[in-house]
Amino acid sequence: MLGIKKKKSTGENTGLISLNLEEKQESNRYLSNQKKYVDLIYPSGIEVTDPRYILMDGAYVACLLCINLSYEIPQNFLGEFLNAGEGIELFLNHTPVNKAEAVKDITHYLGFTNYKRKKGGENQVDSGLQENAAAHSVYMKKKLAEGDEFWYINLIVKVTAESEEMLDKKLRMVEGIMAGKDIFCKRADFRQMEAFLSTLPLDAEKFHPQIKKQTERNILSSGLCAMYPFTSSSISDAEGIFMGINEKDNNQIIIDIFDSEKYSNANMLLTGNSGSGKTFTAQMIADRFRMQKIPVMMICPYKGHEYRKLCEAVGGNYFRFAAGSANTVNMYDIRETKNIERKEESWLAEKQQKLRMLHRLMLPGIDKSMLNKLEDLVGEIYYKKGIKMDDNASIFIRKPGIISLTPKRKEMPILADVYEAMKGRLEFESTREDIKSFVDGSMSFFNGQTNVDLDSIYTVADISDMPDEWISLAMTIITDIFWDRIKGDLTQKICLFLDEIWRVAGKKADPLVSAYIMEIWKIIRGYGGSAVASTQDIQDLESDAGKAIVNQSKIKIALQMEETEAMVLQRVLGLSEEETMRITHFERGHGLLYAANNHLTVNFMPFESERRLITTDRKERLKYKEA
User: Fold this and answer.
1) What is the 3-state secondary structure (H, E, C) of 34-57?
2) What's the rounded mean pLDDT across residues 81-100?
3) Whose CA is closest to 420, among 383, 381, 446, 385?
4) What is the pLDDT of residues 240-286, one digit of tens each?
5) Which one has a higher pLDDT value, 228 or 221?
6) I need a labelling partner for 562 at 20 to 30 A (CA). Which of 222, 342, 372, 596 fits?
């Protein structure tokens, strides 16, 4: 505040004059700062030459006027706009009305309306409108008598976009959302500037009278409360795992993918470029499932060594399926099941069906006739081992007079048995030569009894050193074994992770294998399981199997990727322009999370103990090594 100016007539006034000057200087500084703040807030220029929008600092802005509402407003009526994307803002102005005056006006209006209806002479349209208005008035009067309050509200939607085309797309989206809520919106063409100024947080007198009159509608306090989206777009499931932080509101994201009431299935799809943090995020999620005692099985066709450290640190089972490794998984294994619904099915018949697919992968040029002969040959080998088509118990060693609660399985056939059975039979001469390298050659790790623990709570199958031509075969053999485990017990939650899913479900994958993977994604929910796929080849999501995986995965995570790949993902997932742009600018470990109807931007955060074990960053590894 400025002091009173006085003349310097005596020495007594010197201090007062000095104080006044200081106050004046402080006031000038305040006004100067206010001007600077205003300069920061004000746009550099506004163009209003086009009646459909205003152009402000390169941004296109348009307003939609909402000119009708329903009688009753359901809870969280406008909550859908929380996930509508950036550039969409709701402006809601509300003014209280004296209840006594409101009841008086409604009573007067009802009397006038009833008089007109009795008098008659209106056309059918006018009569219908009057009848609706009368019903609305009766409803309002009843609610006011029950203790509700009366308000006038104005609802305007402000839409901002980077281009004229994007603005029109957003406007049509908002109009569609509003139409679904029985709200009619009208674009404020030729009055966009007036509508825009009305949405600013200024004095109520700045509300343009014509815009206010056109959008003004009455509402009760119960409906007004429902208009406010008092919900959070974050996810906090009671029995979920911590995924990270919602970058919009800094809330924790805790998700339970096995909550069947919230998510129709527990499947998950993880996409991202190399270096985006895909492997890191997958291991982080897998480890948190393990913490909840949910068994995890992971198949890694590339960089499997990155999964080893965490697996061994938590007491899991890591095995390498490649040349020179002592680990073997027998493709001819038949595993028992605890699933009562499958007790009556022939386990051998089911195994033979899967072996047809595995034999096709192992022998690419084999024809249908030879497949049938090979199936008969394998059936003979099982029979010699005492394993019969119509007796599931025949896979166990049975001792006369002894009933065991934990029976042991008989020794299963191996590839060497098939190779030996072909000896001397002309029809198998060429086929025997084809499988020789799998028996005693460079690929002999396919030949032998299973010698790895496939029942661990955390299992990692590393096939990254497998020759490219046999990756699909190895992935399918191990997937088959894991799938048997999933189907074996309907009471247990369990997760199957398939890294680089395009290998078995992409455009170049074998059709039978793709169909097999699609079947897993479609029916795994019925066995209480979850299938998790990750891929950096986004193009393959447009294949038939890729589309099935996308459609059957209710949880999707999109990490950073290049613009061309982000455009493919936009088509596949139906991303908005803002979401597509975000994907191309994400930092490592940041991404979009799609869970049911929630679209969230998340910072996927590991615990420090996890980061030490799963980081692939060279600098971080060096830091932890030195520590």
Assistant:
1) HHHHHHHHCCCCEECCCCCCEEEC
2) 82
3) 381
4) 999 999 887 788 899 999 998 888 899 999 999 888 889 999 999 99
5) 221
6) 596
Structure-block tokens of residue 193: 């500037």
pLDDT at 565: 87
Three-state SS letters, 331-347: CCCCCCCCCHHHCCCCH
Distance separating alpha carbons of residues 260 and 490, to the nearest angstrom: 14
Give tens-digit pLDDT for 464-486: 988 888 888 989 999 998 998 89
Separation of alpha carbons 623 and 601, rounded Å: 29
CA distance 542 to 502: 11
Is the distance from CB of 278 to CB of 270 less than 8 angstroms? Answer: yes
- Strands 458-462 and 296-300 turn out to be parallel
Round to whole Å and give the CA distance between 558 and 591. Answer: 5
Tell me the C-alpha distance between 4 and 14, whole Å: 13
HEC sequence for 110-162: HHHHHHHHHHCCCCHHHHHHHHHHHHHHHHHHHHHHCCCCEEEEEEEEEEEEC
CB 238 within 8 A of CB 223: no
C-alpha–C-alpha distance, residues 363 and 438, integer Å: 11
Q: Residue 321 class from Cβ within 10 Å (0-12 exposed, 13-18 middle, 19+ buried)?
A: buried
Q: Closest by alpha carbon to 589, among 575, 606, 577, 576?
A: 606
d(CA 188, CA 199): 12
What number of other Cβ atoms are within 10 A of residue 404's Cβ?
10
* Angle between helix 511-523 and 471-488 (nearest 10): 30
How far does Cα 478 stand from its chain's mean position? 27
DSSP, collapsed to helix, strand or coil, labels residue 556 as: strand
| pLDDT at residue 92 tops 60 | yes
pLDDT at 555: 93
Measured distance CA(28)–CA(6) in Å, rounded: 19
Amino acid (1-letter code) at residue 247: E
Per the CB < 8 A criterion, the answer to whether 347 and 337 are in contact is yes
